[in-house]
TrEMBL record:
Pfam families membership: Acetyltransf_1
GO molecular function: acyltransferase activity, transferring groups other than amino-acyl groups
Transmembrane segments: none
PANTHER family according to UniProt: AMINOALKYLPHOSPHONATE N-ACETYLTRANSFERASE-RELATED-RELATED
Protein's organism: Brevundimonas bullata
Taxonomic lineage of the native organism: Bacteria, Pseudomonadati, Pseudomonadota, Alphaproteobacteria, Caulobacterales
Protein name: Putative GNAT family acetyltransferase
Presence of the UniProt keyword Translocase in the record: no
Length: 229
């Protein structure tokens, strides 16, 4: 029997909490535009793959994250491919004393969140991505310096995502402190925290291990666009 995190996108889009954000039909789903470009087919049947090719792509691409690569749907091509490391929280490490003021981010912070994510590229981030879950940030004189939040939510799990800091604010421990705040709210709901990192990002993986995450699996990430471009 497969694990929900073997196919995190499909698990999220068919979950109790995020099924309302799914668009598509006939064996293929994606997050509604504005929330993200993540998409998945129900299986590898020709019908499901054909349905994936028909998903709307106003951003120009859709993104798959699978434990095993899915065949490229007809009419699409791989625009970008990468190996991700999927990690699951085993036990949250004890907190270190830090003088960091963390605050929940609201809809009023949305433009600043999008600007920070666009600058730092923590992963696909759009104008409604911040609505996928609780986000927290660190500000200085009203300027957003760092943030972290939630993204995919398969039943019983929540992904920590959107972790980024402005280049002027790196090395201050903001990422770890913000992630801890996000993780604590996930644990308070009785869920398991997980995340994805590029497999070659040794610094990030070391931070995640220090927080209490362990590697669960290697995942195949692919950005798919039209074969005609």
């Amino acid at each position: 029997m497969s694990h929900p995190l073997d196919r995190p996108i499909w698990s999220a889009l068919t979950s109790e909490r995020q099924a309302s954000l799914a668009v598509g039909a006939d064996g293929a789903l994606r997050f509604a535009p504005g929330y993200g470009v993540f998409a998945a087919s129900e299986d590898q049947s020709p019908a499901s793959l054909a349905a994936m090719a028909l998903l709307e792509r106003p951003e120009g691409v859709i993104c798959t994250v699978e434990g095993q690569p899915v065949p490229v749907p007809p009419g699409l091509r791989v625009v970008k491919a990468a190996t991700l490391t999927q990690m699951v929280l085993v036990e949250l490490a004890p907190a270190k004393a830090r003088d960091i003021i963390i605050e929940p981010l609201t809809e009023a912070d949305a433009p600043a969140m999008l600007a920070l994510a666009t600058l730092t590229e923590p992963g696909p981030f759009f104008d409604r991505t911040h609505q996928l879950g609780g986000f927290f940030g660190v500000k200085q004189d009203g300027r957003l310096l760092a943030m972290a939040g939630e993204r995919m939510k398969p039943d019983g799990f929540t992904e920590v995502s959107g972790v980024c800091a402005h280049p002027d604010a790196r090395g201050r421990g903001y990422a770890g402190a913000l992630m801890r705040t996000v993780i604590e709210q996930i644990l308070a709901r009785g869920e398991t925290a997980f995340l994805h990192s590029y497999a070659d990002n040794a610094g990030a993986i070391a931070l995640y291990r220090a927080l209490g995450f362990e590697v669960r699996s290697e995942m195949a990430m692919r950005m798919l666009g039209s074969a005609e471009t």
